[in-house]
Write a structure and sequence with these properties.
Layout lengths: L3 H19 L6 H8 L3 H7 L3 H25 L4 H16 L8 H9 L4 H25 L5 H19 L3 H18 L7
Helix pairs in contact: 1-2, 1-4, 4-5, 4-7, 5-7, 5-8, 5-9, 6-7, 7-8, 8-9
Length: 192
């Protein structure tokens, strides 16, 4: 028998694949059991409700997102390029075969009005991403107001790419981000 940590990982990985691919409400716990190879009794011992499992999946996704973002921004030197690397990270993600948009937005759309736990997990991830972008903006010496603008571009690109079924939104958002960054970093112009 596998230990609780390994069972949790198997369950969360299986649920993540199913929830992301089909939607949370379309997936029953029996499908999670079959995919994970863990009994329903054990699943419910580790996750007393489906909401608990959804939140665990969202936390798992958040860790993966944070690691991917950190890896993408670590490959470039300048603060400006780090900001643009966020959009390069999105471009790489949007071409993945199983891309279905943002799991946090998807889960919030399905369950946000019904599950305070899921809503809180989605809000927590979005706040974390905004904080990450804000730190990059500060490092670039740009005005604080640039951070939410870039975060909104990234969020909109995720939704647009998922709905359109093409990765074009990443490049378009990167181009818009470059324009915003250049304007924010331009020296203040004094009237003649």
């Amino acid at each position: 028998m596998i230990d609780d940590w390994a069972a949790r990982e198997q369950i969360v990985t299986a649920a993540d694949r199913l929830f992301y691919g089909r939607g949370v409400q379309a997936v029953g716990m029996d499908a999670v059991r079959a995919q994970a190879g863990v009994s329903l009794k054990r699943i419910y011992a580790l996750f007393p409700s489906k909401d608990d499992l959804v939140v665990a999946v969202l936390h798992h996704r958040s860790r993966r997102w944070d690691a991917g973002l950190a890896a993408a921004t670590a490959t470039v030197e300048s603060p400006r390029d780090k900001l643009l690397a966020v959009f390069d990270f999105l471009a790489d993600w949007f071409v993945e075969e199983d891309f279905r948009g943002c799991a946090f937005i998807n889960s919030f759309g399905e369950l946000g009005a019904l599950s305070p736990q899921v809503a809180a997990a989605a809000r927590e991830q979005k706040a974390s991403f905004q904080g990450y972008v804000a730190a990059l903006v500060r490092a670039a010496g740009a005005p604080e107001s640039l951070a939410p603008q870039l975060a909104i571009l990234a969020e909109g690109a995720q939704t647009t790419a998922a709905i359109a079924g093409t990765p074009d939104a990443a490049r378009q958002a990167r181009d818009a981000a470059a324009t915003l960054i250049e304007a924010a970093l331009a020296p203040a112009r004094t009237p003649a």
